[in-house]
From TrEMBL, chains A, B:
<protein>
    <submittedName>
        <fullName>Transcriptional regulator</fullName>
    </submittedName>
</protein>
<dbReference type="InterPro" id="IPR036388">
    <property type="entry name" value="WH-like_DNA-bd_sf"/>
</dbReference>
<dbReference type="InterPro" id="IPR011991">
    <property type="entry name" value="ArsR-like_HTH"/>
</dbReference>
<dbReference type="GO" id="GO:0003677">
    <property type="term" value="F:DNA binding"/>
</dbReference>
<dbReference type="InterPro" id="IPR036390">
    <property type="entry name" value="WH_DNA-bd_sf"/>
</dbReference>
<dbReference type="InterPro" id="IPR002577">
    <property type="entry name" value="HTH_HxlR"/>
</dbReference>
<keyword id="KW-0804">Transcription</keyword>
<dbReference type="Pfam" id="PF01638">
    <property type="entry name" value="HxlR"/>
</dbReference>
<keyword id="KW-0238">DNA-binding</keyword>
<keyword id="KW-0805">Transcription regulation</keyword>
<feature type="domain" description="HTH hxlR-type">
    <location>
        <begin position="7"/>
        <end position="105"/>
    </location>
</feature>
Protein backbone atom coordinates (compact mmCIF):
# COMPACT_ATOMS: atom_id res chain seq x y z
CA UNK A 1 0.00 0.00 0.00
CA UNK A 2 1.55 3.32 -1.11
CA UNK A 3 2.26 5.67 1.79
CA UNK A 4 -0.22 8.25 0.43
CA UNK A 5 -2.96 5.63 0.86
CA UNK A 6 -1.57 4.37 4.15
CA UNK A 7 -1.18 7.76 5.82
CA UNK A 8 -4.89 8.57 6.23
CA UNK A 9 -5.84 5.05 7.30
CA UNK A 10 -2.90 4.71 9.67
CA UNK A 11 -3.59 8.14 11.13
CA UNK A 12 -7.32 7.37 11.46
CA UNK A 13 -6.44 4.18 13.32
CA UNK A 14 -3.97 6.05 15.53
CA UNK A 15 -6.49 8.84 16.06
CA UNK A 16 -9.07 6.40 17.33
CA UNK A 17 -6.68 4.53 19.60
CA UNK A 18 -5.07 7.67 20.89
CA UNK A 19 -8.07 9.03 22.75
CA UNK A 20 -7.21 8.88 26.39
CA UNK A 21 -8.33 5.60 28.06
CA UNK A 22 -9.57 4.06 24.78
CA UNK A 23 -6.67 1.62 24.73
CA UNK A 24 -7.41 0.44 28.25
CA UNK A 25 -11.16 0.16 27.61
CA UNK A 26 -10.45 -2.08 24.59
CA UNK A 27 -7.94 -3.98 26.74
CA UNK A 28 -10.76 -4.68 29.25
CA UNK A 29 -13.32 -5.59 26.58
CA UNK A 30 -10.87 -8.10 25.07
CA UNK A 31 -11.65 -10.13 28.20
CA UNK A 32 -15.30 -10.41 27.05
CA UNK A 33 -18.55 -8.47 27.23
CA UNK A 34 -18.91 -6.27 30.28
CA UNK A 35 -21.47 -4.07 31.96
CA UNK A 36 -20.89 -0.35 32.24
CA UNK A 37 -20.52 -0.67 36.00
CA UNK A 38 -17.89 -3.41 35.64
CA UNK A 39 -15.88 -1.25 33.24
CA UNK A 40 -16.29 1.82 35.42
CA UNK A 41 -15.09 0.05 38.58
CA UNK A 42 -12.08 -1.52 36.86
CA UNK A 43 -10.72 1.69 35.30
CA UNK A 44 -9.56 4.98 36.87
CA UNK A 45 -12.00 6.93 34.71
CA UNK A 46 -15.20 8.95 35.29
CA UNK A 47 -18.56 7.54 34.22
CA UNK A 48 -19.10 10.51 31.91
CA UNK A 49 -15.79 9.99 30.08
CA UNK A 50 -16.29 6.23 29.93
CA UNK A 51 -19.70 6.74 28.38
CA UNK A 52 -18.20 9.16 25.82
CA UNK A 53 -15.44 6.72 24.87
CA UNK A 54 -17.91 3.82 24.54
CA UNK A 55 -20.10 5.92 22.21
CA UNK A 56 -17.02 6.65 20.05
CA UNK A 57 -16.16 2.93 19.94
CA UNK A 58 -19.75 2.14 18.93
CA UNK A 59 -19.65 4.82 16.19
CA UNK A 60 -16.37 3.39 14.89
CA UNK A 61 -17.87 -0.11 14.73
CA UNK A 62 -15.45 -1.41 17.35
CA UNK A 63 -17.93 -2.14 20.12
CA UNK A 64 -21.66 -2.90 20.44
CA UNK A 65 -24.09 -2.01 23.20
CA UNK A 66 -26.78 -4.59 23.99
CA UNK A 67 -29.78 -3.84 26.23
CA UNK A 68 -31.26 -6.84 28.05
CA UNK A 69 -34.85 -6.09 29.17
CA UNK A 70 -34.33 -7.66 32.61
CA UNK A 71 -35.38 -6.02 35.86
CA UNK A 72 -33.37 -3.94 36.36
CA UNK A 73 -32.42 -3.41 32.72
CA UNK A 74 -28.97 -4.87 31.91
CA UNK A 75 -26.66 -3.12 29.38
CA UNK A 76 -23.57 -4.93 28.12
CA UNK A 77 -20.73 -3.76 25.89
CA UNK A 78 -18.86 -6.13 23.63
CA UNK A 79 -16.15 -5.87 20.95
CA UNK A 80 -17.09 -6.46 17.33
CA UNK A 81 -14.87 -8.45 14.98
CA UNK A 82 -13.17 -5.16 14.07
CA UNK A 83 -12.63 -4.54 17.80
CA UNK A 84 -11.30 -8.02 18.53
CA UNK A 85 -8.88 -7.55 15.60
CA UNK A 86 -7.16 -4.91 17.79
CA UNK A 87 -5.87 -7.66 20.08
CA UNK A 88 -2.36 -7.71 18.51
CA UNK A 89 -2.20 -3.89 18.67
CA UNK A 90 -3.14 -3.70 22.35
CA UNK A 91 -0.89 -6.66 23.22
CA UNK A 92 2.12 -5.16 21.43
CA UNK A 93 1.61 -1.79 23.14
CA UNK A 94 1.28 -3.50 26.53
CA UNK A 95 4.45 -5.54 25.97
CA UNK A 96 6.39 -2.47 24.80
CA UNK A 97 5.11 -0.37 27.74
CA UNK A 98 5.96 -3.08 30.29
CA UNK A 99 9.53 -3.33 28.97
CA UNK A 100 10.33 0.25 28.04
CA UNK A 101 8.12 2.65 29.96
CA UNK A 102 9.49 3.33 33.42
CA UNK A 103 6.91 3.79 36.18
CA UNK A 104 8.13 7.35 36.88
CA UNK A 105 7.74 8.37 33.20
CA UNK A 106 5.29 11.31 33.25
CA UNK A 107 1.69 10.13 33.38
CA UNK A 108 -0.48 11.33 30.50
CA UNK A 109 -1.18 15.03 30.64
CA UNK A 110 -4.10 15.27 28.18
CA UNK B 1 1.48 -7.24 35.98
CA UNK B 2 -1.49 -6.01 38.05
CA UNK B 3 -3.71 -3.55 36.21
CA UNK B 4 -2.93 -0.78 38.69
CA UNK B 5 0.73 -1.03 37.64
CA UNK B 6 -0.12 -1.51 33.99
CA UNK B 7 -2.52 1.41 33.65
CA UNK B 8 0.05 4.23 34.01
CA UNK B 9 2.65 2.53 31.83
CA UNK B 10 0.14 1.52 29.18
CA UNK B 11 -1.38 5.00 29.18
CA UNK B 12 2.08 6.63 29.04
CA UNK B 13 2.91 4.45 26.06
CA UNK B 14 -0.41 5.28 24.40
CA UNK B 15 0.05 8.96 25.26
CA UNK B 16 3.38 9.06 23.49
CA UNK B 17 2.18 7.18 20.41
CA UNK B 18 -1.03 9.12 20.21
CA UNK B 19 0.46 12.48 19.37
CA UNK B 20 -0.59 13.22 15.84
CA UNK B 21 1.95 12.04 13.22
CA UNK B 22 4.21 10.36 15.82
CA UNK B 23 3.19 6.91 14.61
CA UNK B 24 4.02 7.75 11.02
CA UNK B 25 7.34 9.38 11.95
CA UNK B 26 8.36 6.21 13.81
CA UNK B 27 7.09 4.20 10.83
CA UNK B 28 9.51 6.17 8.58
CA UNK B 29 12.44 5.92 11.01
CA UNK B 30 11.99 2.15 11.18
CA UNK B 31 13.40 2.22 7.63
CA UNK B 32 16.71 3.61 9.00
CA UNK B 33 18.29 6.94 9.96
CA UNK B 34 16.98 9.90 8.01
CA UNK B 35 17.68 13.58 7.59
CA UNK B 36 15.11 16.13 8.65
CA UNK B 37 14.53 17.10 5.02
CA UNK B 38 13.92 13.47 4.02
CA UNK B 39 11.36 13.05 6.79
CA UNK B 40 9.73 16.37 5.99
CA UNK B 41 9.34 15.57 2.28
CA UNK B 42 7.95 12.09 2.92
CA UNK B 43 5.23 13.15 5.39
CA UNK B 44 2.26 15.53 5.03
CA UNK B 45 3.45 17.53 8.04
CA UNK B 46 4.89 21.02 8.63
CA UNK B 47 8.57 21.45 9.47
CA UNK B 48 7.65 23.10 12.76
CA UNK B 49 5.43 20.21 13.88
CA UNK B 50 7.94 17.63 12.67
CA UNK B 51 10.66 19.32 14.69
CA UNK B 52 8.39 19.34 17.77
CA UNK B 53 7.57 15.64 17.41
CA UNK B 54 11.25 14.73 16.94
CA UNK B 55 12.17 16.64 20.12
CA UNK B 56 9.48 14.67 22.00
CA UNK B 57 10.84 11.39 20.62
CA UNK B 58 14.36 12.40 21.70
CA UNK B 59 13.12 13.34 25.20
CA UNK B 60 11.35 9.96 25.47
CA UNK B 61 14.55 8.14 24.51
CA UNK B 62 12.98 6.79 21.32
CA UNK B 63 15.11 8.66 18.78
CA UNK B 64 18.54 10.29 18.64
CA UNK B 65 19.73 13.31 16.72
CA UNK B 66 23.28 13.19 15.35
CA UNK B 67 25.06 16.26 13.90
CA UNK B 68 27.72 15.52 11.28
CA UNK B 69 30.12 18.50 10.95
CA UNK B 70 30.14 18.32 7.14
CA UNK B 71 29.71 21.33 4.92
CA UNK B 72 26.84 21.95 4.99
CA UNK B 73 26.21 20.45 8.40
CA UNK B 74 24.27 17.16 8.20
CA UNK B 75 21.72 16.21 10.92
CA UNK B 76 20.33 12.70 11.05
CA UNK B 77 17.60 11.15 13.20
CA UNK B 78 17.65 7.51 14.19
CA UNK B 79 15.60 5.21 16.42
CA UNK B 80 17.14 3.94 19.65
CA UNK B 81 16.69 0.36 20.80
CA UNK B 82 13.56 1.52 22.67
CA UNK B 83 12.36 3.06 19.41
CA UNK B 84 13.08 0.00 17.28
CA UNK B 85 11.18 -2.07 19.87
CA UNK B 86 8.05 -0.25 18.63
CA UNK B 87 8.23 -2.15 15.35
CA UNK B 88 5.54 -4.72 16.35
CA UNK B 89 3.28 -1.93 17.60
CA UNK B 90 3.51 0.10 14.40
CA UNK B 91 3.20 -3.02 12.25
CA UNK B 92 0.10 -4.24 14.10
CA UNK B 93 -1.55 -0.81 13.82
CA UNK B 94 -0.73 -0.65 10.11
CA UNK B 95 -2.15 -4.12 9.49
CA UNK B 96 -5.31 -3.36 11.47
CA UNK B 97 -5.76 -0.01 9.70
CA UNK B 98 -5.26 -1.55 6.25
CA UNK B 99 -7.89 -4.20 6.95
CA UNK B 100 -10.44 -2.35 9.03
CA UNK B 101 -10.19 1.40 8.43
CA UNK B 102 -12.10 2.43 5.32
CA UNK B 103 -10.56 5.23 3.22
CA UNK B 104 -13.61 7.43 3.75
CA UNK B 105 -13.43 7.05 7.55
CA UNK B 106 -13.04 10.62 8.89
CA UNK B 107 -9.43 11.78 8.77
CA UNK B 108 -7.99 12.85 12.13
CA UNK B 109 -9.49 16.06 13.41
CA UNK B 110 -6.91 16.95 16.12
Amino acid sequence: MKSEELCPRFESGMELLSKRWTGLIIFRLLEGSQRFSELESSLPISGRLLSERLKELEAAGIATRTVYPDTPVRIEYELTEKGRALHPVITSIREWAEKWVTPDEPAPTK
